């Protein structure tokens, strides 16, 4: 147990380190281990992350770091791991193929592999290659046991015993073939949805804006589609999300808005829009940036059945009193440690390989 205790302590210290960067202008704290060595370096990595991927604005980087800082507490980590028996684990080498759509999106897999007693061979996305190697180096300093157990590679993955790979539906087909002989978790495209009844409060609808606009909608936990009752009036929705109007000030988002609006108008699609978000009636779950798809339903029973049938396409369902596994408004980008991607228990998988 001392081994897992030491690993938990290392991640708690990492959480304390990250807490310095939850504001856009970081404030260096005293009495943090190795802070003199790592503080300025991580500030530079954040700058590089933004320069390499301009979707990674300082605001969204700070948000991602704040979520991990809050998650990496002794209480949270201990409570999460109390559901598992982590002893007598035969160490394996676990390859992780990481996505790069939002900052540190592969960190939960990285955390799970190391806490389960295995080694990491990580293949980073070119869109998010600066943050995790630096944080891994910090972990190695606060707990030397991690040295030699964390490898980052840009080469072909070799010498691994199991794999966790995240990508698009197209890359998933490649992953299925390439990794078929190894224990694996293969993640494909998923999107999140919200089910509205028309009885939502203004506060709930405003919170839904966080689910839609955080990370400019690039995450699988972002709401890309809403289901509404037949004849739904969108006035309350548009009024409630008006506080997010500054999203259009970001040039890349504005470019997507203008482009998609032109495509819709030239195609004679009927759209609703408010100057920073377009609503388009569409059966698909995958909406472009600056667009939210919507679909009408006749009854709550019918929408429950549809969501059950399409569960392999859906990451989160936002609602109030609709389904047992629903997520509260405004909470999709604030998952807990036990909220596993695609509903697949990563830690259980790692303890069985």
Low confidence ranges: none
The shape, in one word, is globular
Rg, please?
Answer: 21 Å
> Any idea how many domains?
2
Largest sheet: 6 strands, mixed
Count up the helices: 12
Residues in helices, as a percent range: 25-40%
The strand count comes to 11
Q: Structural class of the secondary structure composition? A: alpha/beta
The helix-strand sequence is HHHHEHEHEEHEEHEHHEEEHEH
Give the strand order of the largest sheet, numbering strands 1, 2, ... along the chain.
8-9-10-7-6-11
Give the CATH level 1 class of the largest domain.
Alpha Beta
Q: Write the CATH architecture name of the largest domain.
A: 3-Layer(aba) Sandwich
What's the helix and strand layout?
Layout: H1 2-18, H2 35-52, H3 58-71, H4 74-81, E1 93-97, H5 107-115, E2 119-123, H6 131-142, E3 150-152, E4 162-166, H7 169-178, E5 184-187, E6 191-195, H8 202-213, E7 223-229, H9 235-240, H10 251-266, E8 271-273, E9 278-281, E10 291-297, H11 300-309, E11 314-318, H12 346-352
Helix pairs in contact: 1-3, 1-6, 2-6
Task: Summarize the structure in short.
With 353 residues, the protein is an alpha/beta fold.
Question: Can you describe this structure?
Answer:
The strands form two sheets. The chain has a six-stranded mixed β-sheet, sandwiched between helices. It has helices at 2-18, 35-52, 58-71, 74-81, 107-115, 131-142, 169-178, 202-213, 235-240, 251-266, 300-309, 346-352; strands at residues 93-97, 119-123, 150-152, 162-166, 184-187, 191-195, 223-229, 271-273, 278-281, 291-297, 314-318. Helix 8 (202-213) links the parallel strand 6 and strand 7. It is α/β, with parallel strands linked by helices and 353 residues long. It has two domains: 2-189, Aldehyde Dehydrogenase, Chain A, domain 1 (3-Layer(aba) Sandwich); 191-318, Aldehyde Dehydrogenase, Chain A, domain 2. Helix 1 (2-18) runs antiparallel to helix 3, helix 1 (2-18) crosses helix 6 and helix 2 runs antiparallel to helix 6 (131-142).
């Amino acid at each position: 147990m001392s081994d897992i205790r030491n690993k938990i302590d290392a991640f708690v210290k990492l959480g304390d380190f990250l807490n310095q960067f939850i504001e856009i202008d970081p404030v260096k704290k005293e009495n943090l281990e190795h802070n003199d060595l790592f503080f300025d370096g991580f500030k530079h990595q954040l700058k590089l992350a933004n320069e390499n991927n301009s979707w990674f604005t300082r605001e969204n980087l700070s948000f991602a770091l704040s979520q991990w800082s809050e998650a990496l507490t002794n209480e949270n980590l201990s409570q999460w791991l109390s559901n598992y028996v982590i002893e007598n684990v035969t160490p394996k080498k676990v390859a992780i193929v990481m996505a790069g759509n939002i900052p540190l999106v592969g960190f939960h897999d990285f955390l799970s592999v190391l806490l389960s007693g295995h080694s990491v061979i990580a293949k980073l996305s070119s869109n998010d290659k600066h943050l995790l190697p630096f944080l891994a180096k910090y972990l190695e300093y606060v707990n030397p046991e991690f040295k030699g157990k964390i490898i980052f590679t840009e080469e072909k993955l070799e010498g691994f015993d199991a794999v966790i790979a995240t990508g698009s539906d197209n890359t998933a087909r490649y992953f299925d073939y390439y990794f078929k002989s190894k224990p694996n978790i293969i993640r494909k495209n998923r999107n999140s949805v919200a089910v509205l009844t028309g009885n939502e409060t203004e506060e709930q609808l405003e919170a839904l804006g966080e689910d839609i606009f955080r990370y400019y909608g690039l995450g699988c936990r972002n709401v890309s589609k809403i289901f509404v009752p037949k004849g739904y009036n969108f006035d309350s929705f548009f009024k409630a999300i008006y506080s997010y109007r500054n999203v259009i000030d970001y040039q890349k988002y504005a470019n997507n808005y203008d482009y998609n609006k032109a495509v819709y108008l030239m195609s004679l699609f009927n759209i609703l829009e408010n100057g920073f978000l377009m609503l388009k009636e569409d059966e698909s779950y995958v909406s472009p940036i600056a667009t939210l798809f919507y679909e009408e339903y006749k009854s709550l029973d019918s929408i429950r059945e549809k969501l059950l049938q399409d569960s392999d396409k859906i990451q989160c369902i936002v609602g109030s009193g609709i389904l047992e596994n629903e997520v509260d408004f405004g909470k999709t980008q604030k998952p807990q440690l036990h909220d596993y991607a695609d509903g697949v228990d990563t830690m259980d998988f790692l303890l069985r390989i």
